[in-house]
Specification:
Layout lengths: L7 H24 L21 H26 L1
Length: 79
């Protein structure tokens, strides 16, 4: 894998830095009124991928609830 994609290890080692930079940019755009961000109301536990159906269902339901709570703000943003 490293022979075929020599930069893969470097990219994996720095992915958290890129993720944080993207998050910072996203929230800056939101603050300036150029983006509307849907984000969980509180920090979620667990990893990126889960095989626990109940945990996935709870996250999905929280997303639906958050959407309905912010629906009017989103409509106003899109005008």
């Amino acid at each position: 894998l490293c022979r075929k994609y020599p930069k893969i290890i470097e990219a994996l080692d720095h992915r958290h830095i890129m993720y944080k930079a993207c998050q910072d940019k996203m929230f800056a755009l939101e603050k300036s009124g150029k983006a509307f961000v849907f984000a969980p109301e509180h920090v979620l536990g667990g990893g990126t991928y889960s095989m626990d159906a109940k945990e996935e269902e709870a996250i999905y339901e929280m997303g639906i609830k958050d959407f309905y709570a912010q629906q009017e703000k989103l409509k106003a943003f899109m005008k």
